[in-house]
């Protein structure tokens, strides 16, 4: 996900809002008797947090003494809490204890969306009182969606799933194939895993290969030539080409026998249905049925086609779906249809299917040896045919809406979460300095949301809100187990509400909903993954310039859709014992999320060969 690396004028004003109170605390620390002060006031381990849903928040503080004075200690404390109207809602009274960590609130019930101020008075060993103040703000304090004022989970539809084929190594696929009887054809193959960029650059692989275009691929070949031999058996051949120096398109890795109960002389020119699945290079193949009797490989764990060998927990994964296509030898012809790829994990929704019956353009248009007719790909010609294309489509989800403010604003709070991770923007400014929100929880049980003070970002007049989503822990590759891909669901969605409180006491609420928000999936971030990294196409930047600002031309965007759990989230059983169903509680942010802790400047830069640089950052780093 992209991030802003500079502070805007408004962000600098926000920084000033906490910097000067902190400066006053430090000044006061110098002036108090015995040079003692109370510092680091935190509520639920956070400094002046907003969006707390804890009914009994815990208070903590520290004592500090100038010049490292010794013998300074706390003998008693007293905490008082007031609401926005200055009414005291709790007073602990003087407590004769040295405790200064996790003192639980024990006053009146806290109200949602309310700012409270709290003061701690501390008695030291000499009986001198030292005090300091801080604040906290409650969140929605309702784990259901009732507090979201009708906001809906929104995103794209079933045809909008991100499909960057060169980053997907766990998948299901299938196709229909019918060899041409008129030409007495006996062989044709479907191709996948082609043009893996790692195999086209020598320093990106340890396999000793450096391929040009269309020199690396896997082919899955139906071969009925054996039916005319003494054995009388058709075969399903699996070739690997260009992944290692030993690979060949002449000798298959595997030649699997197809039982005569499945393909025989009477049906060999009928249409055959092929299904396959791959987990990190372990391949299962099925023909004309999905049960054990129709699985061609004997071992249900699959055939190892990864050049790095049989699947282990954390090996380099081959193949990706990558580029796909078809292959026939000279004079051979076949008809392919229903070419598709699906997510492996249930609900196994389709991520690629050209819908040939109504298609206006195909990824294979213009390739030699390929014709499209009657909902099928007709493959073959006088010479050999190897027709390969990139099936990738869609980029990470982007959402936007606009609204108008006509009165003076007292405060504005943005409540937001996502299935996946998100970045929010208001009037072109990134909201917050944290990353990977809403963070990882067991989403079918608890799901955190974040609260942002966006008062300084909302203007009188026309305003815009934008959101960009990505996989996070919700979708994609999240562990070293392939059947955890899309652990919770297969698509990202946003839930948000902006509550504006005006100076006259009235409120206006802008919620996420399909009627007022628009969706876009052709931006520069093609894919974002914790395991697979981010794929960025800078040529698409111009199309979204100003996308989160008012007045942006979003005529190429389409209406957002409501994204339900049903049909988009995990169902079934894939070796799961701890996934009983969905009973999610929406809770305010607990603790601090990921953020920038330090920026490093390299101490030296060395160009070791043209275009290759080594940056010495002056320290070791991991992550």
What does this structure look like?
The protein is mainly beta. It folds into three domains: 32-138, Immunoglobulins (Immunoglobulin-like); 145-158 and 395-595, Galactose-binding domain-like (Jelly Rolls, Sandwich); 165-389, Sandwich (Jelly Rolls). The chain is 4% helix and 38% strand. The protein is built from one helix and 41 strands. The strands form nine sheets. Strands 10, 15, 16, 17, 19, 20, 21 and 22 form an eight-stranded antiparallel sheet that branches. Strands 9, 25, 29, 31, 32, 37 and 38 form a seven-stranded mixed sheet that branches. The longest helix is centred in the N-terminal third of the chain and has 23 residues, at 9-31. It is elongated, with a radius of gyration of 31 Å.
Largest sheet composition:
8 strands, antiparallel
Share of helical residues: under 10%
Strand content: 35-45%
Distance between the termini: 16 Å
Give the overall average pLDDT.
Answer: 92
| Helix segment tally | 1
| Strands, count | 41
Q: List the uncertain runs.
A: 1-28
Class from secondary-structure proportions: mainly beta
State Rg. Answer: 31 Å
Number of domains: 3
**Any guess at the CATH architecture of the largest domain?**
Sandwich
CATH topology of the largest domain: Jelly Rolls
Cα shape: elongated
State the CATH class of the largest domain: Mainly Beta
């Amino acid at each position: 996900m992209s991030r802003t690396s500079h502070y805007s004028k408004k962000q600098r004003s926000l920084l000033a809002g906490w910097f000067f109170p902190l400066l006053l605390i430090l000044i006061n620390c110098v002036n108090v008797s015995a040079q003692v002060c109370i510092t680091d006031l935190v509520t639920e381990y956070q400094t002046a947090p907003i969006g707390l849903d804890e009914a009994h928040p815990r208070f903590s503080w520290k004592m500090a003494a100038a010049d490292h004075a010794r013998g300074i200690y706390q003998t008693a404390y007293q905490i008082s809490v007031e609401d926005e109207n200055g009414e005291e809602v709790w007073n602990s009274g003087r407590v004769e204890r040295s405790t200064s960590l996790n003192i639980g609130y024990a006053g009146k019930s806290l109200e949602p969306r309310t700012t409270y101020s709290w003061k701690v008075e501390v008695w030291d060993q000499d009986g001198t009182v030292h005090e300091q103040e801080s604040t906290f703000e409650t969140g929605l304090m309702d784990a259901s969606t009732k507090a979201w004022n009708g906001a809906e989970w929104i995103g794209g539809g079933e045809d909008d799933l991100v499909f960057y084929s060169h980053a997907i190594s766990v998948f299901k696929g299938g196709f229909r194939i019918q060899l041409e009887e008129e030409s007495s054809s006996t062989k044709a193959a479907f191709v996948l895993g082609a043009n893996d960029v790692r195999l086209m650059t020598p320093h990106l692989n340890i396999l000793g290969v450096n391929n040009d275009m269309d020199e690396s691929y896997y082919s899955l070949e139906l071969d009925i030539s054996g039916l005319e031999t003494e054995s009388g058996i058709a075969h399903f051949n699996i070739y690997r080409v260009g992944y290692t120096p030993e690979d060949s398109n002449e000798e298959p890795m595997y030649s699997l026998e197809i039982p005569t109960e499945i393909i025989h002389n009477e049906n060999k020119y009928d249409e055959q249905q092929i299904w396959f699945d791959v987990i990190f290079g372990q391949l299962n193949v099925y023909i004309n049925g999905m049960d054990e009797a129709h699985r061609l490989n004997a071992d249900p764990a699959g055939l190892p086609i990864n050049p790095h060998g049989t699947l282990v927990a954390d090996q380099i994964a081959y193949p990706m779906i990558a580029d796909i296509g078809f292959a026939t030898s000279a004079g051979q012809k076949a008809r392919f249809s229903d070419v598709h790829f699906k997510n492996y994990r249930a609900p196994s929704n389709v991520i690629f299917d050209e819908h040939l019956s109504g298609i206006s353009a195909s990824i294979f248009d213009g390739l030699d040896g390929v014709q499209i007719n009657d909902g099928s790909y007709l493959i073959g010609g006088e010479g050999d045919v190897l027709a390969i294309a990139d099936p990738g489509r869609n980029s990470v989800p982007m959402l936007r809406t606009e609204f108008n403010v006509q009165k003076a604003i007292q405060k504005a709070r943005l409540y937001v979460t996502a299935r996946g991770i998100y970045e929010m923007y208001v009037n072109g400014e990134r909201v917050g300095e944290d990353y990977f929100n809403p963070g990882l929880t067991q989403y079918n049980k608890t799901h955190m949301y974040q609260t942002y003070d966006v008062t300084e970002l909302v203007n009188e007049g026309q305003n815009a809100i934008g959101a960009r989503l990505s996989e996070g822990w919700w979708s994609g590759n999240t562990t070293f187990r392939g059947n955890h891909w899309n652990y919770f669901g297969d698509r990202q969605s946003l839930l948000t509400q902006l509550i504006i409180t005006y100076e006259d006491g009235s409120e206006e609420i802008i919620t996420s909903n399909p009627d007022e928000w628009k969706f876009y999936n052709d931006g520069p971030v093609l894919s974002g993954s914790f395991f697979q990294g981010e794929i960025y196409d800078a040529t698409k930047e111009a199309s979204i310039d100003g996308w989160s600002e008012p007045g942006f031309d979003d005529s190429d965007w389409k209406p957002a859709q409501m994204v339900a759990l049903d049909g988009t989230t995990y169902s079934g059983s894939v070796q799961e014992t701890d996934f009983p169903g969905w009973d999610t509680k929406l809770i305010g942010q607990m603790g601090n999320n990921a953020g920038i802790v330090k920026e490093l400047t390299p101490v030296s830069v060395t160009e070791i060969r043209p275009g290759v640089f080594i940056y010495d950052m002056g320290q070791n780093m991991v992550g």
